[in-house]
Amino acid sequence: MEVVVGGKRRARRSYGFDEVALVPGPLVIDARDVDVSWTLAGKRFDIPILAAALDGAVNPRLAVEMSKQGGLAVLNLDGIQTRYEDAEAVLQSIADAPQEGVVGFIQALYAEQPVKPELIRRRIQEIKDAGGVAAVSAAPHTAQRAAEAAIEAGVDIFVVQSTVGTVRFESSQIPEFPVAQFCKDAPVPVIVGNTVGYQATLELMEAGAAAVLVGVGPGHICTSRKVLGIGVPQITATADCAAARDDYHARSGRYVPIITDGGIRNGGDIAKALAAGADAVMLGSTIAAAAEAPAPGYSWGMATSSADLPRGTRIKVGVSGTLQEILHGPAHRDDGTMNLVGAVRLSMGSLGAHNIREMHEVEMMVAPSLPSEGKSLQRAQGVG
User: Fold this and answer.
1) In this predicted structure, what is the pLDDT of residue 380?
2) What was the pLDDT predicted at 44?
3) Does the global pTM surpass 0.85?
4) Is the pLDDT of residue 217 over 90?
5) Does 376 score more than 80 pLDDT?
6) Helix (H, G, I), strand (E, B) or coil at 312
7) 71 with 77: CB under 8 angstroms?
8) Residue 333 CB partners (closer than 8 Å, separation 6+)
9) Those residues with Cβ within 8 angstroms of residue 272's Cβ, 6 or more apart along the chain or in another chain
10) Going by DSSP bridges, is the β-strand pair 2-6/9-12 parallel, antiparallel, or unpaired?
């Protein structure tokens, strides 16, 4: 639906998590019988949750634990883990830094030491030696060099991630990143992101992406929407990108998963993302709140350290519980931020969806009153 915002300027109406509701149908399924698994390039994962490549969320230890819990964690190859031998001490210093001037402090730490190929290999080996699935991320301008060390170390999945990911790029200063060639040459699946639209998603799939990350600026620690004024609310972005996936699958026979990345606060948001067309979701600050996370109680954006234009900030997320409790429970909070997999199972069962593909077909309504209807006492008392 288009609306006139003034003069001849029209704008398309779009929707975020709080503006839609999922509608139960005539069938209810026991939550224990619901299949929440998904597949990436032939590899099956028990739960549709990835941990984002944030320095405050993922280190080798958490990546291993995430694998044990049935999910996948992505390690940031442009971050502290690959710049400093004693990464944990540096991460603790970021967590301990006063809020005033913290962005400059983070910028200085990232600028002080370059990424070291030997540390890339070591971190991946630490994950592999402990039995974890090694997934890593790098920005387009560092991906080629990082991939050499990562592939040598036996990485399982490589992510190329930028604020806006596309196949087409124009610049008078730097060469275009060869997405199609990179995907073709890589001996492992390549996830590419981030995008929010049909055409860009379709072109990334045609270029050989094994999965596509969806979301520009919705994360708790991201300030791109404020700094750049860009982005699309996640329900609409996911649905548009899922339409590209379905059309590409019908034409090519290759199914490329969509991963909703950012803006997700609770189990209900995960369920809505899946209903909008996602095959899995990526969580950052929620994982950073795990007891096993590397920067106790804090998270910051991948672009916080940018020397020119920081597009992230450090936030306090606290410690919610163990990763096991956050993903599988038991929950000891009432706000939907723990036992996320249990919440998704119950939501899917209540909607009559046996699996994630069926979840894509459930009825959705525009319902901005859903989060607030009948909840005045909860809001007044700060609970729920």
Assistant:
1) 76
2) 98
3) yes
4) no
5) no
6) strand
7) no
8) 320, 321
9) 17, 20, 22, 235, 364
10) antiparallel
What whole-number distance in Å separates Cα of residue 123 and Cα of residue 119? 6
Among 265, 328, 279, which residue's Cα sits nearest to residue 32? Answer: 328
C-alpha distances in Å from residue 321, one per residue of 67, 125, 144, 170: 18, 27, 37, 45
DSSP 210-279: SEEEE-SS-STTB-HHHHH-----HHHHHHHHHHHHHHHHHHHS----EEEES---SHHHHHHHHHHT-S
Tens of pLDDT, residue by residue over 177-204, are 999 999 999 999 999 989 999 999 999 9
Query: Per-residue pLDDT tens for 153-175?
Result: 999 999 999 988 899 888 888 88
- Domains contained in the chain, CATH given: 2-381 (3.20.20.70)
On the CB side of 86, how many CA atoms lie within 13 Å of its CA?
A: 4
Rounded distance, CA 20 to CA 28, Å? 21
Provide the token pair at 105. Answer: 């402090």
What DSSP assignment string belongs to 317-355? ----B-HHHHHH-----SSS-SSHHHHHHHHHHHHT-SS
Question: Is the CB of residue 316 less than 8 Å from the CB of residue 348?
Answer: no
pLDDT value at residue 10:
94
pLDDT of residue 313: 86
Q: 213 versus 304: which is more confidently predicted?
A: 213
User: Rounded to whole angstroms, how far apart are CA atoms 269 and 185?
Assistant: 36
> Which amino acid is residue 65, in one-letter code?
E
Cβ neighbourhood burial of 116 (10 Å; 0-12, 13-18, 19+):
middle
In 3-state terms the chain splits into helix, strand, coil percentages (rounded to 5) of: 40, 20, 45
Q: What is the pLDDT of residue 353?
A: 98
Percentage with pLDDT > 70 across the chain: 99
User: What is the rounded CA–CA span in Å between residue 11 and residue 5?
Assistant: 6
Instruction: Please spell the DSSP secondary structure of 56-112, one letter per residue.
Output: TT--HHHHHHHHHTT-EEEEETTSGGGT-TTHHHHHHHHHHS-STTHHHHHHHHHHH
Cβ neighbors of 96 (< 8 A, separation 6 or more) are: none
- Mean confidence (pLDDT) of the chain: 94
Euclidean distance between CA atoms 159 and 76, whole angstroms:
9
Task: List the one residue out of 72, 76, 56 whose CA is nearest residue 64.
Answer: 72
**161 sits in which H/E element:** strand 157-161
pLDDT given for residue 219 in this prediction? 82
Residues 262, 51: contact at Cβ < 8 Å? no
